[in-house]
Amino acid sequence: MAPRETRYSALVDFDGTIAPDDPTDRILEQYADPAWRAIEAEWQAGRITSRVCMQRQAALLRATPAELDAAIRAVRLDPAFNGFVSLCRRRGIEVTVVSDGFDRVVGGTLGRERVALPFFANALQWQGGDRWRLALPYGRADCRSGAANCKCAHSPNKGLWRDERCVVVGDGRSDFCMAMRAGFVIAKGALADFCRAEGLAYASFRNFDDATRILAEWLDRRDQRPGGPRPAARGGKACP
Ligand SMILES: [Mg+2]
Ligand SMILES: [Zn+2]
Asked: Are both 59 and 151 inside the same structural domain?
């Protein structure tokens, strides 16, 4: 099937979504000073933003690049993610991976699996020896998700709310701001709770077998509706 005229975009989270085992947490468990857990608890209690949390945790990593890359080689992708990407290619949807984790992890894993997709993540910079710092090229002080990587800044339709040409797939708090921009959200975990509370159009998924079926059904309903996608509301620039 040829790509449709209407160009859709899909913004897809990495940790807990494409990579179901939360690789950032696994890497911190393996290599960070144990103080990372107290920082995680602060974030879970809502006392610090993910932006602050991620920078402090990255500074506690104690791994050489070779050690870190060995852990990255063990990161598992959802085996059905490739099928989701194929559906998107057939239906004219541009897929972008947006992660509040480490670029070395996202890029290394997608590269190993030969998944050729653009991605945006926080920049993990080696400081020599076993030390690291996290730079935030996509951070925004006013991000409503408090994310290190303000994900809604990567939407091609930044000025719009509830844009039916934008679909989001995710599971957590870092996905909140981009979910507000999307016309449809495929969600689990805290993101599903958020969509329910905010009255966003969403469907629950467990894995990419579900997500692929849900997206195909959603596209079919869009295609059958006369007049195509409803116009989105104007909503200023990315975040808040
Ligand atoms: Mg996630
Ligand atoms: Zn944001």
From this structure: no
